[in-house]
Amino acid sequence: MQFKENWTETRELFSAWWSGQSTKRPLMNIWAKREPALANPYPALPFSELRERYLNVEKIVGNQLEYFCGYEPLAEACPILPLDLGAGSLALYMGSQAYFNADSLWFEPVGSDYGDSGFLVFDPENHWYKTHLDMYRQAQSILRDTDAILCIPDLVEHLDILASLRGTTTLCFDLYDNPVRVKAACETLNAHYKICFDAFRALCIDETGGNAFTAFNIWGKGRTAKIQCDIAAMLSPEIFREFAIPYLREQCDWLDNSLFHLDGPECLCHVPALMEIEGLKALQWTSGHMNPPGGEECWDDLYRQVKEAGKGLWVGLYEYSSEDSVAKADRLVRKFGAHGFYFQFPPMERKEAEALLLKAEREWIS
User: Fold this and answer.
1) What angle, rounded to 10 degrees, do the helices at 158-166 and 245-254 form?
2) Whether residue 289 has pLDDT greater than 90
3) Number of domains in the chain
4) In a domain, 281, yes or no
5) Range of the domain at 166
6) How far is CA 165 from CA 142, 176, 189, 272, 281, in A?
7) Quick check: 103 pLDDT over 80?
């Protein structure tokens, strides 16, 4: 491949990781600075306005390829090219409108109630849905002469999408005032999620039947995705089990490979329920703003629960220096063993990356 040399081996290791088999060493996401950089086959151009960061496919592709030309994906890092319309674009397809700002794309509540005509009705002619699919087709055309990997967008699912459509505060009241309608809405949104996921997957699937997913640098054979329930931070364990677990379980059964994105300490109380989902393959932990980052000892109880449940464990170490990130990974391997970990390291110099690979092959063996 143009950007990645060990792609066949990488896919084999991902397949083993998802199935809980031995990968010998932890999976690792390592980006090493190229010396010299490759020539970019497509021009990298600055964005002139906020909307372009999400909608100008030529500039998005050119800037992402510029990074691939400057940094090489080693170990299990993949040259994945995202084309997200925010985190939760399913809300746009269901009638929400986009609000662009410097950091992200947010979704305006639609102002509809459960009984309103058209609420939660998926229209394949929806402007944002058609626009997003067209963006993927345009990217396909541009990427035809490269080996960058087009990946499925961050659609998001059930309760989080309902929070975008109804508003978070309104949904919290709905859980008590309209529990039957909330559950019916989650079933409907799961069905729409599957339709949209497969539509994008048809544009992203590779020759092995696998796909990459935009978040957290993952690839898997079969339907592969990150799943989440960020509103869980506002839910008790009992409410989470009643209103989230059934739809997450259905989603995990439908997907071949699922990684749950656990966001913030307020969600730690839900880990026992998540670990009971047989179809869930792995967990990713985001410690949240102003909290100690991944790899710190204060999160070891979380790592222990995931390890004991036999799930894969995605650990972000990118907030540290190269040296400190390796030290954090080393501590985790020595305490919990190498099996099941997927470490995300910060970009580093080539010599640092080579030393890390050598250390992993010699010392981090399961």
Assistant:
1) 120
2) no
3) 1
4) yes
5) 7-363
6) 34, 17, 11, 29, 29
7) no
